[in-house]
Design goal:
By secondary structure, the protein is an alpha+beta fold. It contains seven helices and six strands; from the N terminus they run H-E-E-H-E-E-E-E-H-H-H-H-H. The longest helix has 21 residues. It is an enzyme of class 3 (hydrolase). It is found in: Cytoplasm.
């Protein structure tokens, strides 16, 4: 069995402030994308077999396909001669690019011809909100409503979720339903975080129920 920690420790993390560029190649040889990884993201990639990146813009680790479903299943991993760049060969599900194309790369003369994205990334914000809530639980912040809820404990957290769920049921119109549903989802994420449950676990349960194996096809 490979010692992932020993492998990770041998890479040169200092050159790019703790990050290493990752070139991703499909099984047909096409270069799909370029991303960055840190030690934790690479550890998740090697242990789970699915590619994880460190997002420099969002400053968090994300699994490729976590919202789009376009996963990258790791087949082989290579390191360059300086131990500061990785090449990953993957079995790509769907398009690799966030714009819905097979690859993030196109001929340079097509630099002004970007396709419109056909992937719904609206769930990205839910992941960001989840991470903020987890951070407030771990590191309380003065004046934060989320911190207030965690300080109050289970009874308050469950009560607020129940209240918000009722508000959805009695909402008088479409706009109010959207508003109250947003409140309910936020309080649900707080409740799940309090109980140590990740929203991804709930999604996995839904997937099982609505798969042929689960017997509850949509």
């Amino acid at each position: 069995m490979l010692d992932y920690k020993q492998i990770i420790d041998k890479l040169d993390w200092e050159k790019n402030n703790g990050l290493i560029p990752v070139i991703v190649q499909g099984l047909d040889g096409d270069v799909l994308t370029l991303g960055y990884t840190d030690k934790e993201a690479l550890s998740k990639t090697l242990q789970t077999g699915y590619v994880h990146y460190y997002s420099r813009s969002k400053e968090r680790i994300r699994m490729k396909g976590e919202t789009s479903g376009n996963y990258q299943k790791l087949k082989e991993a290579f390191v360059d001669c300086d131990n500061d760049t990785l090449l990953l060969k993957v079995d790509q599900t769907g398009p690799a690019c966030h714009l819905g194309t097979k690859s993030c790369f196109r001929k340079i003369e097509q630099i002004d011809k970007l396709p419109e994205s056909n992937i719904d990334y609206s769930l990205d914000f839910l992941n960001q909100l989840k991470e903020i809530i987890k951070e407030r639980k771990k590191n309380p912040k003065e004046g934060s409503y989320t911190t207030y809820l965690f300080n109050e404990g289970k009874e308050k957290i469950y009560k607020k979720f129940g209240e918000e769920a009722v508000e959805v049921l009695v909402a008088p119109n479409r706009e109010r339903t959207i508003y109250e549903t947003a409140d309910m989802i936020y309080h649900l994420l707080v409740l799940l975080t309090y109980e140590g449950i990740d929203i991804g676990e709930v999604v996995q349960e839904l997937k099982k129920r609505h798969s042929p194996e689960g017997g509850k096809q949509s």
